[in-house]
Write a structure and sequence with these properties.
Length: 91
């Protein structure tokens, strides 16, 4: 019988703690600050796209100029890309 009373008291204590926590959350809710982002999402997307383009151009220049022992500025010429495409498509 005493075990049952201890369980009831434990349950009542837990319920009381839960009520206190929910009351504290309700009290804080109106006071919560609205988060203002320093960099908007649309600007983040643009930044990622620009950085991706820089990485692609830099990688192509490094690969063609240093690894391929060519001139790094040749990656901006149409003839270079048509030659690369011809090499890839050649069977």
């Amino acid at each position: 019988m005493s075990l049952n009373n201890e369980q009831e008291q434990s349950t009542k204590g837990t319920e009381k703690l839960n009520r206190e926590k929910s009351a504290a959350k309700e009290a804080r809710s109106p006071k919560e600050r609205i988060r203002v982002r320093l960099i908007p999402i649309w600007l983040r997307i643009i930044i990622v796209i620009v950085l991706l383009a820089i990485c692609i151009i830099g990688g192509a220049a490094f690969g063609y100029g240093v690894i391929g022992e060519g001139n790094a500025t040749d990656i901006f010429k149409k003839e270079t890309w048509s030659h690369i495409i011809d090499l890839v498509k050649k069977q």
